[in-house]
Design goal:
- By secondary structure, this protein is α/β, with parallel strands linked by helices.
- It has 27 helices and nine strands.
- It is elongated.
- It starts with a strand and ends in a 14-residue tail after the last strand.
């Protein structure tokens, strides 16, 4: 087996000041901007009570400790696939257990994470910009939010190589600001530190009538943990763990600072503290000195944009993985910069943009968005826990430890789910609806592909070696191409689809000097790029198997050229033109790709469920990228043919010939 090019996971394994700064800018944007809206969501319009505040910040602290620190930073980050993380990477690790139902948590989790990418930018940017209302209470922030969102999504096509250099330093400023603001409020009010005692969290949940409802908003403090795992490959486990120690301290200081401020104003409401009865104040801005507010609002807005950028980039990576795993229809993927792993998917970019605009226009204010936020991502966390359990089984962890982890975290996350489900009618239906549409699309793509594959007929190549050799030398048949190339789905190198032989022999006899069969294997290693060559018929039929990682774009045209070049240099094949005049001048022969589109014949007797899935799958294919573009083929050298796929023939028609 040969290597197409030297590849390695896109991760930063060494720890330095520079890599830690990069990690701050890429990894912690989502979870790092949560102080903008968590305490505001918890308090709402209710009268501030010390018991609720202490219980809330105690819940926040222990959620960050148990959920983010232990489950994700300590445990889940170990479940890396050659340095890459995320729920699809985790799925590729555990699917070797051959439990087919594991596809369910993978699809649900991936869909929920994408839905989070639509909700997070609006709530983060809206929460930041609403600080301007301190100066202009009647200001409509919706146009500003939409304008920033448009600018953010518009620049994706150019890549983020330049502005990315500022992400780390800006997030460092953001986190330092969080810590300083928190400490300034805690000075003289250190009694708030007693919330470190989990008793106050249990007291809130068990005694207070609104305790469980509050838990739904507490969960917002850890929503970025799943994105943290997905971005593992960008920075490496060591950088994430070291940076998280700093990030968590700054977050906790700010939450406790907001708590100290609120306790000092017990008996009042946030609306009263903001002097605006129609607009509840935000504790995040209320703890700022008046002279610092313009600076704080500016820094918060920049941090929210950076957090949104990280989720957008993560969505591109997630969709690219989904395409390679047959969970998503083929769409155009671009590489705007030379930074390894940076993608731009136009269709997803604008789909996310319009989704974000819908969220902004539907909810109008961040306070209304809080109800929609959290429900989808907690579903993703539950799915990750299930897959993580199987990963630990695969790695032969102590069974007692596995059971304990599953019991603890499924209990925690199901509790969060129950708390968040109470917000369904208040806006949670939006995130669930978005996740549901995405999951349905993934399910149709996966099942449609599998049904077609199950009904594909294969035949032995040995049966056709003689006729292929003879047709290549038959001058009575016009030459179709010097090199004729087909893409095959046959896993067995000694087999080929019936449709390919039908195309060569019956569709229109296609004489060629060399026949090539190309097969693409999607491997569980994210950045593998290797190939194997097998000569099936001397100087006539060659098969090439590509082994490409699930994060590698299948640029078959370029890869095939690389293989051909290697074979010519090693003397394995002579691809000079067989036309005498061209051969004398050392001109290479031409190459022609033939792609065969399978059409489900109407002459089929299919089960209703399979018919519906195939019809929906065909509809999705019509609006997705064509096969030749998806495989990076030059359209000028590609011929598209259509082959009727007879899946299950109907009974013979009782047609009688009349005399």
């Amino acid at each position: 087996m040969s290597t197409l090019s030297k590849t390695s996971p896109n991760s930063i394994n060494k720890v330095s000041v520079g890599t830690l700064l990069v990690t701050l800018g890429i990894i912690f944007g989502d979870i790092g901007t949560s102080p903008l809206y968590v305490m505001k969501a918890i308090m709402g319009k209710e009268v501030i009570q010390e018991a609720i505040v202490l219980g809330a910040i105690s819940c926040v602290f222990w959620t960050l400790t148990l959920q983010t620190t232990f489950k994700y930073v300590f445990l889940t980050l170990k479940a890396d696939n050659k340095g890459e993380g995320g729920i699809f990477s985790l799925y590729t690790l555990v699917k070797r257990l051959h439990k087919r139902w594991l596809i369910v948590p993978a699809i649900i989790g991936g869909s929920a994470l994408l839905a989070d990418g639509i909700i997070t930018p609006p709530i983060s940017i809206s929460s930041a910009l609403e600080g301007i209302k301190i100066y202009q209470p009647d200001l409509q922030t919706i146009p500003l939010v939409l304008g920033i969102l448009f600018g953010l999504f518009f620049i994706q096509q150019f890549g983020t190589k330049f502005i990315g250099k500022f992400f780390g330093p800006m997030m460092l400023i953001w986190f330092v600001m969080l810590g300083i603001l928190g400490v300034s409020q805690m000075m003289g009010s250190f009694y708030v530190l007693k919330a470190l005692n989990p008793y106050y969290a249990f007291h809130l949940l068990s005694i207070h009538s609104d305790g469980y409802y509050v838990l739904g908003f507490v969960f917002l403090c850890t929503t970025g943990a799943e994105a943290l795992y997905s971005d593992l490959g960008h920075c490496g486990i060591k950088n994430i763990r070291i940076s998280w120690a700093f990030v968590k301290i700054m977050l906790v200081l700010n939450y406790f600072g907001q708590g100290a401020y609120l306790i000092e104003h017990s008996g009042k409401t946030l609306s009263f503290l903001s002097a605006n009865p129609d607009n509840p104040g935000n504790p995040f801005y209320l703890i700022m000195p008046e002279w610092f507010l313009p600076i704080g609002i500016t820094i918060a807005t920049i941090a929210a944009v950076i957090a949104s950028q990280a989720l957008i980039s993560g969505s591109f990576t997630l969709i690219n993985e989904a395409m390679r795993l047959n969970f998503w229809p083929k769409v155009r993927v671009k590489f705007p910069t030379d930074i390894k792993g940076q993608l731009y998917i136009p269709s997803i970019n604008w789909l996310l943009f319009f989704g974000c605009c819908f969220v902004v226009l539907h909810f109008k204010e961040s306070g209304n968005m809080e109800a929609a936020y959290g429900l989808a991502i907690v579903m993703c966390m539950i799915m990750t826990t299930i897959l993580l359990g199987y990963y630990m089984v695969l790695k032969r962890y102590n069974p007692i430890f596995i059971v304990l982890i599953l019991l603890v975290y499924l209990s925690i996350e199901i509790s969060f789910f129950i708390a968040n489900i109470q917000k369904f009618s208040h806006g949670g239906y939006v995130s669930v609806g978005i996740a549901g549409i995405l999951a349905l699309t993934m399910t149709i793509c996966f099942l449609g592909k599998r049904i077609r594959k199950n009904y594909t007929e294969f035949t032995s190549i040995d049966k056709y070696k003689t006729v292929l050799s003879e047709i290549s030398k038959d001058p009575t048949i016009p030459k179709y191409a010097t090199n004729l190339i087909y893409l095959t789905n046959a896993q067995n190198s000694e087999e080929v689809e019936e449709k390919i032989m039908y195309s060569i022999l019956q569709k229109r006899p296609k004489r060629a000097d060399n026949y090539w069969l190309l097969h693409v294997n999607v491997t569980d290693e994210p950045y593998q790029m290797e190939y194997r060559v097998k000569e099936l018929l001397h100087d006539n039929l060659i098969r090439i198997d590509f082994y490409l990682g699930f994060r590698i774009a299948p640029k078959i045209n370029l890869m095939f050229r690389k293989v051909v070049k290697d074979m010519m240099e090693s003397g394995e094949v002579d691809l000079s033109s067989r036309y005498a005049s061209l051969n004398r001048n050392n001109i290479l022969g031409d190459f022609k790709f033939v792609l065969i589109e399978k059409l489900v014949s109407y002459d089929n007797d299919l089960p209703v469920n399979e018919r519906i899935i195939l019809d929906l799958y065909d509809l999705i294919k019509k609006i997705s990228l064509s096969e030749e573009k998806a495989f990076g083929l030059d359209s000028s050298s590609v011929k598209i043919e259509y082959y009727p796929m007879i899946i299950r023939p109907t009974p013979d028609i009782p047609l009688i010939r009349r005399k």
